[in-house]
Amino acid sequence: MPDFGDNGDFWLFGYGSLIWKPPPHYDQRVPGYIEGYVRRFWQASEDHRGTPEAPGRVVTLIDRAHWETLVDHHDSLPTEKVWGAAYHIPAPKVPEVRAYLDIREINGYSIQYTPFHPASNQPNATKSHPEPIKCLVYIGLPSNPQFLGPQDPQELAAHILKSRGPSGENKEYLYMLETALLDLSAESEDRHISDLASRCRKLEVSESKGPSRSEVLGQLEVESGLHKVGSTEEQEEVEK
Ligand code: BEZ
């Protein structure tokens, strides 16, 4: 792996919002992947897609060896590769970009370095990058206070749907991430993300329809103090 930053430049790997919202001042954007991690919506967001009072949910990367020790409802889903986009930051712009990222990503994320593999369908991918590229990546480690650990997928989707913060609705982050991933390559879908997005869309449809007839009847029963009974006689008995 070539030495990082020999010329004072650096490469940054984005696996979340950086995929569709690039840093300022990059001169190359390369789709590709890293290995040895699992992407999960397990990081609380108090500063972008939620607030300190009602944190939203954003993605972080979990070291694969650690993830294998956890109980995860999505355990059959992760592929070996975490797809995203790498950005080359030219040397003169490094201080400005680092300052921008430190502010943008500060809520619990730490800096790590990892080898990045450009997608094979990139023009001149192996010619211009014969070796993996050492990339800086922001990771919300399990030790950070915003790290939540395994989440029930349906509860997570419902939580994302109701959350919002200074950067906008949490569901927009999820949908943008799903689309940005699908745009990277033919094999870059992340099923944890697409499954959550699909659950969220279904919830949106059912919420826009309002409660079903049986839900309304159930609610009426609760409010009137009546209980479901098995026969007309029993019902009359109860209503008396
Ligand atoms: C990312 O897109 O890679 C990212 C964004 C925010 C925090 C950490 C990572």
Apparent shape: elongated
The CATH architecture designation is: Roll
Instruction: Name the ligand types.
Output: benzoic acid
Indicate the CATH topology: Hypothetical upf0131 protein ytfp
Approximate helicity band:
25-40%
Question: How many β-strand runs?
Answer: 9
Instruction: Give start-end ranges of low-pLDDT stretches.
Output: 228-240
How much of the sequence lies in strands comes to: 15-25%
The mean pLDDT is 86
Number of domains as seen in the coordinates: 1
Structural class by secondary-structure content: alpha+beta
User: What's the quaternary structure here?
Assistant: single chain
- Specify the CATH homologous superfamily: Gamma-glutamyl cyclotransferase-like
Q: What gyration radius follows from the Cα positions, in whole Å?
A: 23 Å
| Element pattern in H and E | EEEEHEHEHEHEEHHHH
Distance between the termini: 82 Å
**Order of strands in the sheet with most strands:** 1-5-2-6-7
Count of helical segments?
8
The CATH class label is Alpha Beta
Let me know the largest β-sheet. 5 strands, antiparallel
